Batch of 2 targets.
Target 1
Amino acid sequence: MALTFAKIDQTVLDTLRPAPKSYWLMVLLVFAGLLAGAACWAYQILTGLGVAGMNNPVHWGTYLINFVFWVGIAHSGTLISAILHLFRAGWRNPIARAAETMTVFAVCTAGLFPFIHLGRVWMVYYMLPFPNQRTLWPNFQSPLMFDVVAISTYLTVSSLFWYTGMLPDLAIIRDRAEGVRKKIFTVLSLGWTGEHEQWRHYVRIYLFFAALATPLVISVHSVVSWDFALGVVPGWHTTIFAPYFVAGAIHSGLAMVLTLMIPLRKIFHYEEIITIRVLEQVAKTIIFTGLIVAYAYGTEFFIAWYSHNDVEIEVFLWRAYGHYAVGFWIMVGCNTVAPLLFFFKKIRTSIKWLFVISIVVNIGMWFERFVIIITSVGRDFLPHAWGVYAPTLVEFGIMIGSFCLFFFLYLLFVKHLPSVSMTEMKETLEKGGSHGG
Amino acid sequence: MADDRYLMGLFIEENGAVDAVGALGESSFRIEKVFSPVPSHRLADALKVKKSWVGLFTLFGGVFGFFAGFLLAIFTASRWDLIVSGKPVISLIPFLIVGFEFTILFAVFGNIIGFLFLTDLPRSDWRRHYDERLSGRYYGVLAACPAGREQELEALLERQGADVRRMDRDDPPERAAARPEQAHP
Amino acid sequence: MTEDHAIDRAGKSRGARTAVTVFLVLTAGGLAAFIAGVLGPHPERAWQAYLINFLLWTGLASGGVLFSAIMQATGARWSGRMAGIAEAFSAFFPVSFILFLILFLGQSYLFPWLHEDLHGKEAWLNVPFLFTRDAAALLVLYGVGFRYLYNSLQLRFGGASAGGRRFREGLQRRWAGRRIDEAAVRRRATFWGLLYCFCFVLVMSLIGYDLVMAADPHWISTLFGAYSFVKAIYLGLGGLIITASVLYLKNGPDSGLTKDHFHDVGKLFFAFCLVWGDFFYAQLVVIWYGNISEETAYVIERTMLAPWNRAAWAVLLICFVAPFLILINKKIKTVPPAMIVLCAVVVLGMYLEHMLLLAPAISRSPANIPIGILDLFVFLGFFGLMAASLMTFMTQFPEVARLRKREAN
């Protein structure tokens, strides 16, 4: 059955019907996990950062790993909604809304981790530039301050982009809702009526949003990578980090897109909108980003040898054969080898394989951050200062809590806001010809 | 003008709306507004509107942000001018990052402000001369005519294939009953 | 204009023959200047000019062909005519390979590491291994490129008549003999196009590490390989825009090029201006911030000390600031003469950039920036070679430059 404007509206509006009990059960479950994580965090605030595993020499652990992980996931949402809009790639339209939402919630989740890592959370005011009687100002030369600026900019811009993109859809819901819902969506849709005058400006600003979000994406994860690269730690101080991290971020984010889209399209009957072809395009892009990541791994090892720098060589050998070798080989296998399976059409058009490989890639990317952060700091210049690190239960609790937070927000979103952009889907149809009745 | 009557022609096909715009342009009736569920190039061409200059807001925001970012970083560094890690107190290489991020941030603010300003959103009077089918799949042409010529205008619109609705001040009760597909509460 | 259609038996029109003559004269002039330089008091200056031009024009040619490969691999449909022009750069591949082999003769000037204690790096930096691997790499790249073109050109010109052009006739006989359907050719073109992209990344990185970064053998930058191929793509797009603009100015709408083509390629050029700037900054900020003397010496000499700092600022302005500010404007991308000037200036800026990276190592602390008449002649010589190569390709495949009567994108 061909898609029409009416069918698109109906399919998406149907997802906003009152939810079955199973949905609320899942929300409750995820919320429980979120509370458990919050409890761990509260315990940490009351007891001290020592309850986490960070110590000498490894002073950055899962809090940084998760921070980078979630920021990375956020990036491919912007890639899909902004960069692919600039390239006029039509396959982005069915998944753009869900991907942008993933971005916003992932940045929210990521943004918690610098706070968590502070220990004494209230001290964050040191990082804000406001006049105070101690005449203290933050030092903007610090990469951590770059992070503050970059992540807050990214959160603000992504949220505004996400909201602006939703405006026409919010009007659609407003016009078909009743009662309290109608009032809420009336406020949310700002009085949008789809007049030509509004569209005229809307199309321009959407293009500008896409054009601005693209360099933003690249700069934000470059800034995050510079948290590591601007130091002198071996294995961190390397010029390739910026594009390497950006490619890795998009890699993990695309995998998360698949992880989210596949159950979503099944449960919400989006099969005709989020077609196999769309998922296949995501899979092909994952091959591309996986190859970039492989190039980066190879280059780092080659240059480590080429540099004939004993410290550098030691770190890289330890990564492959040392205490954390398992993590290293998981990283290499999951990130660079597994996506190659997508070269086979049978695999990249099979829902089961797409889902499995997407999870594998996400695990691999988590381990990449683990390997990069832990092994470099654990094995730097002075042998007597070498050490290892293991996350504690509190850290695991907080990590599980962060995953639960993300899925909690996402679950709430899919049932109360349109998870597919009806307007953009209609535009796709319009470009392809008539839209039927 | 205060005596004008407004009629909305609703079209399922974009072509009908485009033709209606053309026909109205040649008549003595005034086109008040044109609606569409998706942005339409053909309607834009038919209406011959100039390009939106919302980009100027974006540009000013970006330029402002560029200098604001650098100035903030330079100001804070000069207030607390200890030499850290052997780097100059005021150094453009790291400050470029702050300047860049602020450029994007304020360009986006300019974008939003320009958009809200030029489209006059948020609006509370959106219900006036609006039909809820327009957000779904109908294109709409709202035309105005002096009192007494409604029949003529209605005929013109119907000739283009419109489903015509009179947007009088008092919305007749039978219209209120003909609502499109509901979203469930 | 119709007089130019008078094609002689070799397939060239009168105007084309004049052009080729001019280009060959330029090449001869470049060769003469180069030989004079090598035999003169500063042979390293001549070899430096040679190497810079080799890298510049090889990058431009490979990057140009990459455009076609990417468009094929991604299934893009807007770019047909542009991709056809991009494929013309492949004619430079054999020239580039021979030019590479000639580098062997200048090894004592071009490889400063020959005279240094490499503390173990000799396993990688030794003349036999370096030349073998780089020659093999270029052979692979160009081989894959030609294999890609074999399929892509068949898609483009498979059924058309060869019009008496010998090379093309040979090709078309082979295509006819293949007897495979269009879908299969398309699949092969996509496969080889993807492989070309893959090889391009690896080979351009290798060339960058071996011929540029190794000039200062104690300095490293992991991003340098990627930086090298990004430069090549930036240059390739610039070369493509110049060629397309020239063809448009010569043939008008008959070239098959529209405003949209120029707009889109102009946007790509703008994008790669940003990517180049980003990759440049990514190296700069990491090295500056870490402040490790093994790394900073290289950067300090080139960006902060005389005489190179002036060149560094010039490169930044010409290759980043100017294109960025100019190309933000949408309209200028569709004005071919303006784009010719802009892209040509960027190519010159990139020449300066290559010089900035190589000259401090090869020319060793001169009082002034070592650029002069010799460099101009050698540059024009290489330009002549490139232009002659392009003309040769377009002689065999004139539809690239000018549509046949019934063709469209």
Target 2
Amino acid sequence: MDPSFILIQTLNGVQYGLLLFLIASGLTLIFGIMHIINLAHGALYMVGAYLAFWLTGYTGNLFLAIVLALPLAVALGIAIERFLIQRLYERDHLDQVLLTFGLILVFDALQSIFWGNDVHGVAVPALLSGSIALTDNLNYPVYRLFISAICLAIALGMYVLIQRTRLGMIIRGGASNREMVSALGINIRWVYTLVFAVGAALAAFAGMIAAPVSSVYPGMGSTILIICFVVVVIGGLGSVKGAFLGALMVGLVYTWGTVLVPQFAGAVVYALMAAVLLWKPRGLFA
Amino acid sequence: MTEPILRTESLTRRFGGLVAVNDVTFTVEAREVHAIIGPNGAGKSTMVNLLSGHLVPSSGRVIFKGRDITGMSANRVSRIGIGRSFQRTNIFPSFSCLENCQLAAQSRLGHSFRFFRRASSYRRVVALAEKGLEMCGLSHQAHTRASAMSYGEQRQLEIGMVLATNPEFLVLDEPMAGMGREESHHVVELLRELGTEYPLVLVEHDMDAVFSIAHRLTVMVNGEVIASGPLDSVRQDPAVQEAYLGDGEEDA
Amino acid sequence: MHSVSRPIQILLVLLSALLLLYPLFGEALAGNAYDYWLQKMTTVMILAILAVSLDLLVGVAGMVSIAHAAFFGLAGYTVVLVAPEWEPGNLWILLPAALVIAALASLVMGLLIIRTSGIFFIMATIAFSQMIYYIFHDSDFAGGSDGAYLFSTPETMVMGRSLLDLGDRLTLFYVTLISLLLIYLLLRIVLRAPFGRVLIGIRENEQRVRALGYNPSFYKLSAFVIGGTIAGFAGVLSAIQYQYIDPSQVNWHLSAEVLVMVILGGLGSLYGPILGAFAFEGLHYTFSSFTRHWQLPMGIVVIVMVLMLPRGIAGGLEWLSERLGRRFEAPAPSARKPTEEHRAAEQHND
């Protein structure tokens, strides 16, 4: 195993982790602020990927497709929150699990109806399709670096938003004290809709930019959902910082797992989760 | 001179920067009603939780019957004989009154990994449950669903459940919370009777009740004990009057 | 959930009798499809066993587990993997082995997560069961995603003679039916026993249960293991029925479907989930018969059910049973002050 191989796998792991962070951050915020367990979050990732595939087919340009698809994803998130999720706030977790599972069934069926069961690919945009030389004899795809860069930028933006703005303060306040936030005259319902819509948009966006790298196939939503659960469990419910670290850990462990123990790559991530839970039963930053 | 059945030594509990209970030392005799009073935020509820094992002290000790029980978990504290009732009614709403007390009494079976005989066939358990129900005056409601009863009756059940665990020591957290005059009267009489049989620590805001049944008083303000002793002397302690009792009762 | 009302008891006995007697009138009813329906009902009853054991966890003890299928599938895999490659296996070895594996797996998983609660617990159950899924799916030792076959149905030899021919559809039907009834009755007994009471208490008010002197974790863990082992039993039956196992049997989707059956039937009622399994499969069959995309109407049914019918079929039955009960009772004396007309009418009726 030479240094360039190690570098490539590590970069891949980081890139995968950063992508996971986009999805998991929404999931953990929805848990932490709204106390809702949303099994359909992965389906939103899938919706993003399929929208990207479909619109790229139409327009020939992934970027354009993303620009068109993003508002659709936001609208979908708002619609789901307004019509369905809002009715779950006073209900117990069991009801939330079931309703969002029902949503998964609906989304999976719709995906199959509209786009069939084949695996689809999405072309990397020409602009980013080259490789960049990292060292003398090592090339790394530009597009993967692009993904990492975008995710990092968003992560930074989230940090600034949550820690440094009034909106972020309200969000953090809503996490610990619903009544207090309402008493301040801020409509907590709108905060929830916003958080959910942003979470949905992030998940969909992740699906869109990942499409050229991960392909587009049925069941991709459920697969990514479970991995994001692991990220959130490791990081601690409601902690964006935890989601970030957890995502990086999972990304690296999974990527290196596929290389070192290909037969158990999937299982290794869960072993990581078990180890973290044994040490810190509520996650790293609960 | 008999050894107090319970005593605390410099009991302290911090929550981050807040010191909810600070260096509290007091004793409870084997046959007394000992009331803990104080304004809101004085740390009384924290004290109750410390005594019943729901909170672990940051420092200090709790000694029960000569045994150090500091840091013991809530279920173990219950098993060694300290029964605790809750300020906010904490019953099993879908069970009948008798079933509520039965579940309480059942805990004295040692373990409930019993899968085959009906719970109601354990005669010792049922007897204990019925006794608890009788003592709190709800025998006539034995088969009524707990959720269907009035608030006052539910508060009685709250105490009945604790009694059904055959305790040796009672810690009651605002048993009269939210009660009107009529209902309070019943409970006061109940507490008076209980005080003759069990050592009783009572946290209450209802001063009439406290003054009519307590033997000794501990007054807490801001997490600290400002006075502790026989009822009359504490009542007349100027520091207590100033800090808490004021020129009369502020709330009934 | 505490006790089943008389009308519902009667209904359940009737339904059981119908199932028991199905083979007698089944051929007349279904003709050529008799055999198909026999198999189908065996499958549904296996799912019903899964559902009723999940109800113990979710409905009685309040632990929302989405790992149930993991124990079901693990037991099935044990049967297929332990059985000899080219000859029938011995049920008296395979069954205990599978149950032990299911029990151990639920014990280990339980030990790791029983002290968590709420969302955390739910997610941990999904995650751990997916770990098991990936172990079977990605590796070769059990056929990977292709699954593995059982050479033939296990033998049940007692003193040199075969006790039951599990390969015979009718035999398997009755074995499954009797198992389902026995398991249901057993769980009913457990519910009325001290152990069951503690579990019910834990779901209603875990804090109080602890304050009364119990350690809830012990009881929850026990319920988890009991439920997991019964799920394993269902897994053995399923492996015998299909003589095949694949990773889809340990997938969390299956666990979620069983959870739907539990809610559809009525959480905590024990008999409800059995009805729920029949209802779910009935819907599945109906939807599949006019569209490939049965998940769409099914998903909508689930959503509507959560929003509109939280108490499921059992809730509906109990409501009906109450109405019926009131019909046959004399009106309580203080219920209503009779008006002049009523008094006159009553006098006429005497």
